[in-house]
Design goal:
With 209 residues, this protein is an alpha+beta fold. It has a single domain, classed as Phox-like domain (PX Domain). It has helices at residues 58-72, 79-86, 100-126, 133-144, 149-162, 170-184, 195-203, and strands at 15-26, 35-45, 51-57. Strands 1-2-3 form a 3-stranded antiparallel beta sheet. The protein starts with 14 loop residues before the first strand and ends in a 6-residue tail after the last helix. One of its GO terms (molecular function) is phosphatidylinositol binding.
């Protein structure tokens, strides 16, 4: 079920999120599922054309969603965010996979929908919460390979003020992508929060463990 955020004072975030693809890895440890899927998540700033890439496993998506629901459920301000996130479920993970390509493509589409809903919900429903807003924004940003969603959007606002060219087209973003990826191709382990924040963000899915 797709979640459509209510139209309010906040504008739609200028970040386009999609899963570009996936790869499979053979598990070293004993498991009924012999293969794990690693998804390549791209976040593109529609104004500047900057591209950020992170590689995430399914259980990292689940850990992030579960942690956000648990940490925000007692906050009155975040109630709408929590209820909306409950209606943005993750796809079910199959215990056995017969066709890896078909299964991976299906999961990638569903996870893309989830991430787009999540980014929209953070920007429009929870960001200004004094209790959880900063941490949630930061956690989701780190999961996507950016330092925070709000910081990425502020750079877009500055760019709009100094340029009249408007959002980059798909072709322009494709031309910029090779130059951007060298700087922003982040894996699950390549971003390192400060020691004081590390345990908190790890519990929300920022980990390859």
């Amino acid at each position: 079920m797709r979640v459509h955020a209510d139209v309010g004072a906040e504008a739609e975030p200028p970040l386009a999120v999609q899963i570009l693809g996936f790869k499979t890895e053979e598990k070293q440890e004993f498991s009924l599922r012999k293969t794990r899927f690693v998804y390549e998540v791209e976040t593109c700033n529609l104004v500047t054309g900057e591209v950020y890439v992170a590689r995430r496993r399914y259980r990292e998506f689940k850990r992030l969603r579960d942690a956000l629901l648990e940490e925000c459920q007692t906050c009155a301000y975040c109630n709408h965010f929590v209820e909306s996130l409950k209606h943005a479920p993750l796809p079910h993970r199959a215990p056995f996979v017969v066709n890896s390509n078909k299964y991976g493509a299906h999961q990638a589409r569903k996870l893309t929908h989830f991430l787009r809903d999540l980014v929209r919900l953070v920007a429009m429903k929870v960001r200004h919460c004094k209790q959880n807003g900063h941490d949630v924004d930061r956690s989701v940003g780190l999961f996507l390979g950016v330092h925070s969603l709000e910081q990425a959007e502020r750079s877009s606002e500055l760019d709009r003020a100094s340029a009249w060219l408007g959002p980059k087209t798909r072709e322009e973003r494709a031309e910029l992508r090779p130059a951007s990826l060298a700087d922003f191709r982040f894996s699950s382990l390549s971003l390192a929060p400060s020691e004081s924040d590390q345990d908190v963000y790890r519990s929300r899915g920022f980990s390859a463990a």
